[in-house]
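Cross-posted from the bioinformatics board.
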Amino acid sequence: MQLARSDEKSDYILAPDPARAGLTRHVVGTDHLGAEVELSVVEERPLTIFLNRQEIVTAMTIGDYPEYLALGFLRNQGMLADDDVITGVDFDEELETVVVRTETVTNHEEKLAKKTRTSGCAVGTVFGDMMEGLEGLELPATPVRTSWLYTLAAKINRTPSLYLEAGAIHGTVLCEQDRPLVYMEDVGRHNAVDKIAGWMLREGVSAEDKILYTTGRLTSEMVIKTAMMGIPVLASRSGFTAWGVEIAQQVGLTLIGRMRGQRFMCLSGKDRLIWDTDPASVTEEPRKSGRKGGKG
Amino acid sequence: MQLARSDEKSDYILAPDPARAGLTRHVVGTDHLGAEVELSVVEERPLTIFLNRQEIVTAMTIGDYPEYLALGFLRNQGMLADDDVITGVDFDEELETVVVRTETVTNHEEKLAKKTRTSGCAVGTVFGDMMEGLEGLELPATPVRTSWLYTLAAKINRTPSLYLEAGAIHGTVLCEQDRPLVYMEDVGRHNAVDKIAGWMLREGVSAEDKILYTTGRLTSEMVIKTAMMGIPVLASRSGFTAWGVEIAQQVGLTLIGRMRGQRFMCLSGKDRLIWDTDPASVTEEPRKSGRKGGKG
């Protein structure tokens, strides 16, 4: 699918809508002065994902894209193959369920027998299978200009998000060159990535020329998901874990972290980088950029 | 178990040891100027937890307290009851496993049948059971002085941690009045909480006079774990989710978030608070406090 180039304001195909009803809730509390205070907090709702007749998992989510979340989750777990024919994705708002139906019914109970609590907000992932899925994986040698990274960070930082409104959630953005395309947020970092994977699957969007940008930590799980999605570049404001770096190096993913203002660190796949920017020309982040971006 | 009062430097019974071997790794990368750079990143290792003969879960952890993690995880999942007699906790460093042995062997496979991905880095939690475990729960009316909260935040912010050293991890601290006692960190927020629960179980430490302080978001899962541990107060630098607030109000937990400098917000259980401090007397955080503390 060809994605048309557009001007900055309308770069986004999907972006957060802080004004959308149902995503945040006003609550009343007491501040440090003992005065009553009203604030906006993000909603969390359970969503139970089914693959045909099989209940797979219940995810806690802000509830904006249940179909994408279900599709992407199953895809990233290896429960939906590229050649699986999806015959339906049925969201029931009352029951808080999504059923993904395929032409060929598969049995994934064995995969569910092994559960992994990973470092980054994941549940029920089949760790062994995930590592296997990486074997023989080759990511494309798509070049990445450092100017794109700086432009993306600036554009993404300026994008209104639920994060800036209500706090307490993680964002991940699918990008192409210097254009952010799909910005997903959720209370769990991996929900945001899965929603992007679900969107790409649904819309038939290619991965090899994309960059994934996240506010969250670059853990092994994040690196694995990105690689399995076929995206060759993963960037974040936040820091790394040793295993995340190791896996990135193993699969040849370009891994860039601690991206703030002029600075960043590339711990894997630097050969994709084209150094076309003098960092001194990049505007430093104002102190109150509004985006803490998780751990450093 | 009586915990002796001590001076500030030695308040901690357990605190992070950034110099401890094996918790971080030096990696080499490239910075934004194209120069080679060396940095410290946290380790992530899988740890497979067994309850007697049953494999329960594999957790990704920094690997500092595998026994506490296993005990606390099982306890917080409701797989270890208060009256269970623990006959052994065996960590095998090579196999990366911990086996918790009890006098009476239990079968928890039914609990494992339901997996919940929650908003906060948990895996394999039995959501339905967790909500059930809260029914009829009563938390003690232990008073909390706001001066303690300010003192704790200041002390904790000054404590050297892996977070400040290497980034990318979450910290949770068990406190008593204005004294931080046990400071646990890990790549997954819930690992840190579970390690504290495991320590309390192992050492026979009471919960009703304690405060739990975390750098992470106050999600439903965090609130549920705190309540199930019997701790009546949960505080964080970070923000809330609506369900976290709701559950806190349901169980009567004192929930304090967005604690930075002079400010905080109490969205539940404010009756425990004793307002003994003029916030104007509290030193504002310096801009570069070094602790981003996650989302706002």
